[in-house]
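Weekly structure sync, notes
Attendees: PL (lead), two postdocs, one rotation student
Agenda item 3: pending single-chain targets
PL asked that the sequence for the first pending target be pasted directly into the notes so everyone works from the same version. It is reproduced below exactly as submitted, 209 residues in total.
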Amino acid sequence: MIILPSIASANQADLATEIERLQGHPYLHFDVEDGNFVPNLTFGVKTIRALRPLSTAAFDAHLMVTNPLDYIPALCALKFRAIAFHWESAPYPLRLIHAIQSGGCYAGIALNPRTAAQQLQPYLAAADYVLVMTSECDGKGDQFQLAMLEKIRWLRAAAPGLNLVADGGIDRSNLPAVITAGVDAVVMGRAVFGADDPAVVVRAFEAFN
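Predicted structure, written out during the meeting:
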């Protein structure tokens, strides 16, 4: 199981130290939020560019933004491994998929909880992965939604070879169910960076099966 630690849940006043606390974990996840598509505001490209030299980890981005195409060239130039845009902000998904892949990155489609997975059927062959949001910005701590497991199961059956990522409210209590539903990777924020030793916690989560 691949664990993608979400740096958005780390201490924002000292991101360099927070990255060090992962002790060389090979992945780092960036939730890029513009304060428009979602209420929160997190990282801009300038901040990400400053952090890139501090880690040899493979970076991936989850673009929770209104205009994802504005971010793709800069993130590809920063050698991101993977970039996911939201289906709900993409009137022309193939344009975004091709822009990401042309930049040398894996292209993902992210789904909000209210969006049916079946809408992606015509695009599953073009995308490299799908990121299923298992919580939303509900003002109550982004609580995990058990019903999203059925969405993951449907995607796994519809596209057996497609990489699936789950993101939102995932912790020790629900991680086994998420894994059983069929994901390849899990984004974890507070469950990692809220621990005394994030590196130890990540290794423990990776061992879940």
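Discussion points:
- Strands lie at 2-5, 27-33, 58-64, 82-86, 106-111, 129-133, 163-167, 185-188.
- The chain has eight helices and eight strands.
Action: rotation student to compare against the earlier draft before next sync.
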